[in-house]
Amino acid sequence: MGQPTPARKDPDWWRDAVIYQVYVRSFADGDGDGTGDLAGVRARLPYLAELGVDALWFTPWYLSPLKDGGYDVADYRTIDPAFGTLAEAEKLIAEAAGLGIRTIVDIVPNHVSDQHPWFRAALAAGPGSPERELFHFRPGRGPHGELPPNDWPSQFAGSTEPVWTRLPDGDWYLHLFTPEQPDLNWAHPAVRQEHEDVLRFWFERGVAGVRIDSAALLAKDPDLPDLAAHPEPHPFLDRDELHDIYRSWRRVADEYDGVFVGEVWLPDPERFARYLRPDELHTAFNFSFLTCPWDAGRLRTAIDTTLAEHAPVGAPATWVLCNHDVTRTVTRYGRADTAFDFATKAFGTPADLALGTRRARAAALLSLALPGAVYLYQGEELGLPEADIPLESIQDPMHFRSGGTDPGRDGCRVPLPWAAGLPYAGFGSREEPWLPQPEGWPSYAVDRQRRDPHSTLSLYRTAIALRRVFGDGPLTWLPAPDGVLAFARADALCVVNLSAASAPLPAHSRLLLASGPLDPTARLPQDTAAWLRA
């Protein structure tokens, strides 16, 4: 492996980076207690450098009661003891940078944990206190204040639970997610100042960027009106006040050459693009591509729409197939319905994993050939399927808040398999992992796949190393049969066959890489992708 490039040398690194998402709790267990930790990540940094990724995005590693997988933060300046210490986080950031790998941390600005000092002080201070002004406390409706202050719905898909909780003193407080995650009042200057201070805290420790959770939810209509009566402008989604917040954040990031990626779920492309103006966020996740079914026409539309909505603001697109919230790609692409929608998740949905694996491998080459940055969720490079979690082992609050109908997100969060012959597939040495690994998990282990040139891990390693052949230019679609996607960038071509039969390859000088073997007549089989030199 060549000498790594120091992390700060290229200010535009984020425009075409491969960024690996680390869900610390499930990545690698360094101390053997059944929970992934920073020691485990540090020990696996050579693996990540070998994979060829440019940056690591860490889901929240802060002090947390873990009522929602760490997205209920009690202290942004402290690492949760289950994961390690702040000193270890600083070592990890420095060691990764030494390998040419940057670090992105996750900030959750919409809410904090109910164990956060601010919220505990608000509870103690009582109704009408300055401490409660940092959140959304309100009296209830009805003759005795027994009804919630408004009709807002939960942001957990399928949840039947209210977003207001009443306290013994009569006040209600707002939580768009769980009761353990009270929403902050972003109209309060102390909330804004605290988050800018937190950004500086982590930038000063060497992080290269920040991922912003639920980025379109922070600002609320101060009157907290009923959604049914006041749907426009929306009382808590995509409000115009947000842009002033992110302009302030951008000024902080620019002091450190830091970058932002926002989690922005919006159906309106024009409204989405506003977050990517030059003085706001650098990038935002592309959910239209992530949720798109395995269909050539739909995927082409998602790609074209994504590139078109980014073009006016000069922002690079991001491409992602899976993350810690959605069904793993292999399983989703093996189902009859290959789209993803939180509202349609259900127990017992059958999947053809062999079919899903072929499609996931082809999708990997498609996403890595597109212009922009790629986010790779841990375990996707191993071709992991979604795991069926026994009912008694489910921990995700999404399951419980749906009344038990939603299987939750634990199935994509199962601890990784590293070594087939070791206890718990090498994830840890002593205690059973915090989520059970399914039977057959060792067959996906890193040590097995490293030795197999045809494995999904080998495919990802080769593709990440080769993807620079596509240059940094635009995408040009090529003529192709129905059900086939073909495009050129620089002097390289990408062809993906989603049709029901094998397809001819366009004229080319040589084959660079394919997601599966070509057929005997050098045609591209169904559910296969190829990279070609023009």
Automatic annotation (TrEMBL):
GO MF annotations in UniProt: hydrolase activity
Stretches assigned to the Glycosyl hydrolase family 13 catalytic domain: 21-413
The organism's place on the tree of life at top rank: Bacteria
Keywords of this entry: Hydrolase
A Pfam family: Alpha-amylase
Keyword Hydrolase: yes
InterPro entries (UniProt xref): GH, GH13_cat_dom, O16G_dom_2
UniProt record similarity statement: Belongs to the glycosyl hydrolase 13 family.
Name listed for the protein in its UniProt record: Glycoside hydrolase family 13 protein
